[in-house]
Amino acid sequence: MVVLGDQLDPSYPSAVGLDPDLDAILMMEVRGQSTDPPSHVQRTVLFLSAMRHHAEVLRSDGWRVEYVSLTQSANTHTLDGEIQRAVDRLRPKELCCIQPGSYSVLEEIESACAGAGVPLEIHEDPHFLCTVADFEKWASGRKQLILEYFYREMRRKLGVLVEPDGKPIGGQWNYDKDNRKRFKTAPDPPAIPRFPPDETTAQVIEDVRRVLPDLPGSLEAFAWPVSREQALDALADFIEHRLPKFGDFQDAMWTGETTLYHSLLAPALNMKLLDPREVYQAALDAHESGAAPLNCVEGFVRQIIGWREFIRGVYWTQGPQYEASNALDQTGRLPGFYWDGETDMRCMGEALGSVLDSAYGHHIARLMVTGNFALIAGVDPQAVNDWYRGMYADAVDWVTAPNTLGMAMHADGGIVGTKPYAASGKYIDRMSNYCKGCRYDVKERTGDDACPFNTFYWDFLIRNRETFRPNQRMAMILKNVDRLAPEQVVEITTSAAHRRSEFGI
Predict the structure, then answer these.
(1) Residue 300 and residue 246: Cα distance in Å, rounded?
(2) Are 238 and 297 in contact (CB under 8 A)?
(3) 3-class DSSP string for 55-121
(4) Mean pLDDT over all residues of the chain?
(5) What does the alpha-carbon distance between residue 222 and residue 41 come to, in Å, rounded to a whole number?
């Protein structure tokens, strides 16, 4: 059985019917997974350390594990090549694996097995709450895939936060309106738990520095959970210390505060160190005991049983061509400051600095700062998707592609988001303190001192107004665009062109 870096649930071999007396498990550290696209060094260390810890768990459970590390072969550049070498060495009668989280990985496994002449069996991933087939049934015949409708169906299916008659507990399905508070003064969130490198992780760090010395990002702050035990500790800490305020401030940002009340559980969930059932149940238990209010629990549960499952369903039902989406025909280069954080835009410096330092940024920093900037500036969505896929600790293709191409870049033409999540600097000013002391003026739209978000936002609307004309959710803002005088349009588009040249877009 091939076990990938995002399949670290020790029950998987038994779940697919393997026999520890007859079968072997193959795990591989493949360089190409960290270099194409370039992966944040913390993301690489996290996955490889979690894999090595998982291999030891499997061995202690009696499984034979064939493990190929970064330093064991000069040829570990591609997954299919490594699988073919393992087949030549082990001579298996057949291979099996849980469905990968990526079309490209699935194709590599299929190619390797076809090239080696070995049968391959793909098993449904039991980790998820909604199968791909069930999502396809739900999506069939719908003009638009609206998360809210899917989420309500999942609530009823799982019996989560619903009354016996199927109506929502508290009378509302969604507490979004209550979950958009901003900080009026500097927040003092509880510290997140840190897991300093143990002997296994220290060895991974040494191997990565030797074999992959050019990966982006910093390792200095590495403290991610790399085992199931550590992931469970991280879950318990979030439920006790941060869930009670998560909902209120889930969209807020503040200088120097990268985690606030967020869970940071996505990497552990996506690697399968945690099961979504135990995660949402822990939140429900907190609500039942009175330890966390309904709006906070609902907002968190929606991410686990709603958004996460919805995004996976979109990825697998849209097909591999989805990753080539570019509905707005944007072709700009990704600015260099995405890789080094060197920019005078305070909001971008904060968001990018968090990613470079810790391979993390919460959902609003991703969507409304780094993603919004790339969208309105006209950056090629594939370049943005590659950056997101490589630079975040929780990045796996099924997660990254719909969130980046659909939600952030509107490159799928509206499959994930019914309107583009484009905003001017006013949004960032409202939800953070980033604009105070910034070199740019958030009240100005054009000129050398104008906030680039303002310039690019209006330029984006001007460039795409006919494309967005049929979208009723864009009608009001497009009326404002239509009111612009011809000289104002020229001033905005000229200023935007100057900024693009300045930023290397």
Answers:
(1) 8
(2) no
(3) HHHHHHCCCEEEEECCCCCCCCCCHHHHHHHHHHHHCCCCEEEECCCCHHHHHHHHHHHHHHCCCEE
(4) 96
(5) 9
Burial code (b: 16+ CB inside 10 Å, e: under 16) for 223-248 equals bbbbbbebbbebbebbbeebbbbbbb
Helix, strand, coil percent values for the chain (each to nearest 5) = 55, 5, 40
Structure tokens that stand for 443 in this block: 């009240």
Complete DSSP assignment for 311-370? HHHHHHHH-GGGGG--TT---BPPPTHHHH---S-HHHHHHHHHHHHHS---HHIIIIII
State the DSSP code for 173. S
Where do the domains of the chain lie, and which CATH numbers do they carry? Answer: 12-123 (3.40.50.620), 132-195+226-318 (1.25.40.80), 337-503 (1.10.579.10)
Mean pLDDT of 210-236: 96
Structure tokens at 60: 């202690």
Question: Rounded to a whole number, what is the distance in angstroms from the first to the last CA of the chain?
Answer: 44
* Integer Rg of the chain from CA: 23
Cβ-based neighbour number of residue 294 at 10 Å: 17
**pLDDT tens, position by position, 331-355:** 999 999 999 999 999 999 999 999 9
Separation of alpha carbons 472 and 492, rounded Å:
24
pLDDT tens readout for residues 475-489: 999 999 999 999 999
**Which residues is 98 bridged to in the sheet?**
123
Widest CA span of the chain, in angstroms? 78
- Could you give the CA distance from residue 135 to residue 133 in angstroms, rounded to a whole number? 5
